[in-house]
Queue: 3 jobs
Job 1
Amino acid sequence: MNRTHRTLTFAEAFDLPLSVDLRTAARAFAVCPATAYRLIRMDCFPCRVVRVGHQYRIPTASLMRALGIENLPVYATDVEAGAEMSAAMTHHFDEQEDSQ
């Protein structure tokens, strides 16, 4: 059976629930599920793994840390300042193009 294992996109990673199944975590690390199970058996999986009954669950916060994605607060004032800066830069570049 020839299956392609697609890596999680950045947007998909930020849309994850509090914990994910092992297949999703494997996708995040760009490994096949069989490799993920092998890493768990070797106690080498790159983030925390919780066994729930017959399933493995991976806390999303642990997954994100292992991927190097920090959980930083976003403040409305920072978003507004970024939007204003973006608008000012766009306006500046538009003026430069018009003058050429």
Note: The longest strand covers residues 55-59.
Job 2
Amino acid sequence: MPFEVAPRAGHGWFPAAEKPVAALVDDVEASRKEWTKAAAVTDADTFSAPYKKGPKIIDSRRTVTARKVLGLATTPPSNDGGGGSRGDGGSGGGLEV
């Protein structure tokens, strides 16, 4: 079942949120195209380019505007690459949402 993003599925947003959410939706759709390309290939060399490009399209720092107008947390995750322990036996991903 394909993933549908609310603004393209007829969801209405309050005026201040329309542009930032639409920009984020555009990024999600562009990223999805790269992931679709990656899923369709049969060799590692061809897989690598879209696999690396897909997540870079949705830069967590660029989501801040949309998150802010929607009343969500706006602190982007750190890009330190660490996934240190939380001290509770689980591994922390270092992401804040």
Note: The chain is about 45% helix and 0% strand.
Job 3
Amino acid sequence: MKTSNRLERIVRWTKTFTDPRLCAAVVDRLTFGGNTIRTETESYRLAQTKTLAVQAAN
């Protein structure tokens, strides 16, 4: 099972998979038969990353 709170960022995957057809194939296989559950809450990891970035900038 693959889970992610970053499904809205799938469009950015083209930076990793530079061939658009390869990117589409990877996304298709990861999301086929899957369900998206949106909680509309900020992830703990994202909040922690933002906090660390602010601390590093100061």
Note: DSSP finds two helices and no strands in the chain.
